Amino acid sequence: MSQVSLSRAQLYELVWTEPLNKVAERLGTSGPRLSQICDAHAIARPEQGHWLRLEMGKPVTVRALEPAPIGVSDTISIGASKRRKAPASPEAAHGPSDAASTAASMSKVPERLVRPHALVAEWIATREQQVRKKEQVYDHRLKRLVLPMPLTPADRRRLRVADAIFKAVEKQGVQVKKGDRRELLMVRGGEQFIFQLRYRLKRGQRQLTPDELRWRGADAQKWVYELYETDALVFEIKTWLPRGTRSEWEDSKRATLEQQLDDIVAGIMAAFPALEQLRREREEERRRSEIAARERRERENARKLDAARFRRLLELAYAWREAELARAFLAALREQLPPGSSPVAGIETTDWLARAERKVDEHDRLGSDPGSILESIAEVTLWTYPGE
């Protein structure tokens, strides 16, 4: 089947019309490959069990087609996929017998590095410089000092695969670079993730050298556990991705990493809309959390303000009660004082009583200025009574 071109809306309509494997068969590709294409172009797919629930008459959820994210084309080209036989060894994947099986691939791993990607060229130059110095360097993966050696066939294979992946994704607008901590990053738009291309490690025993044994006791064990690289090459996205988004590809009996190149590139492209959706969900969650926190603060402030205003009301009520008590006391005192009482401290008793009555009137807002009572309560703020 020749290459098929269709829009995101057309592919969305197809995958919601019948099971994905049937759609893939009609388009001349595989179900997993079509799933990766949908994810890479932000096209929602039916959940697992969707068609069975529909057949049983049970309710199902249909997700709408969201607008295409920035950098994602609305036109999709799907080529026929062919099952390829895995070679006996990783290096055999580059032999003439593999040429026919990879003819339909969108991307290929070169047999030789010609004009390598800038990062790959930098790695090669760094290794050559380390070899010339003949000094041990610390290998963070193996967690020990190692003496740099010239590039082995396994090293060259890893560099060829890296070169092919980097160039393939950069054609689709992805930037490959090193981060501030020398971690490897892939960046597109506002999203980025950390990745690794490495040989899987295994823990094994190593016999100690005679020089190492000199510093150990006679009864000490004569071997140590160390990490060493296996023949299995792994491409891994280290940044956490949402569930259902593939993040690791590895050499297997069915296919080497070279044969999975198209799937790796598709998986990389699918990671960006997944990260964008995750970022949007986190931003929405953060926005809702901020709104909830602001509403809690507003409720708490309203409660505190209400309590402060009630405190002012009680203060005014107590002042009124005290004023009433003071007036009653002054009235009783006036009746008890005999007419023509002698001045006290040079002030006539009538003046003393008049001065006391004015102070009582000032203390009693209800009697002197009733309209100001509500104004006084309204003037209370959260800072009127600090510390409460």
Topology of this protein?
Layout: E1 4-7, H1 8-15, H2 20-27, H3 31-40, H4 50-55, E2 75-78, H5 118-133, E3 137-139, E4 144-146, H6 153-170, E5 175-178, E6 184-188, E7 191-207, H7 210-213, E8 223-237, E9 248-250, H8 261-336, H9 349-363, H10 365-368, H11 371-378
Antiparallel strand pairs: 1-2, 3-4, 5-6, 6-7, 7-8, 8-9
Helix pairs in contact: 2-3, 3-8, 6-8, 8-9, 8-11
Brief overview, please?
The chain folds into 3 domains: 1-81, no CATH class; 106-259, no CATH class; 300-378. The chain is 45% helix and 15% strand. The protein is built from 11 helices and 9 strands.
Distance between the termini: 78 Å
Query: Low-confidence segments, ≥5 residues, pLDDT <50?
Result: 83-105
* Strand-residue proportion: 5-15%
Decide which structural class fits the backbone: alpha+beta
Describe the largest sheet: 5 strands, antiparallel
Order of helices and strands: EHHHHEHEEHEEEHEEHHHH
> What is the radius of gyration computed over CA atoms, rounded to a whole number of angstroms?
41 Å
What is the strand arrangement across the widest sheet?
5-6-7-8-9
Q: What's the number of domains?
A: 3
Number of helices: 11
Mean pLDDT: 85
The counted number of beta strands is: 9
Record keyword descriptors for this entry.
single chain; alpha+beta; 9 strands; 3 domains; 388 residues; five-stranded antiparallel beta sheet; two-stranded antiparallel sheet
Can you offer a commentary on this structure?
It is a single chain. The protein has 388 residues and is α+β, with helices and mostly antiparallel strands. The chain folds into three domains: 1-81, no CATH class; 106-259, no CATH class; 300-378. Helices cover 45% and strands 15% of the residues. It is built from eleven helices and nine strands. Strands 5-6-7-8-9 form a five-stranded antiparallel β-sheet. Strands 1-2 form a two-stranded antiparallel sheet. Strands 3-4 form a two-stranded antiparallel ribbon. Strand 5 and strand 6 form a beta hairpin. Helix 6 packs across helix 8 and helix 8 (261-336) runs antiparallel to helix 11 (371-378). It is elongated. Residues 83-105 have low confidence and may be disordered.
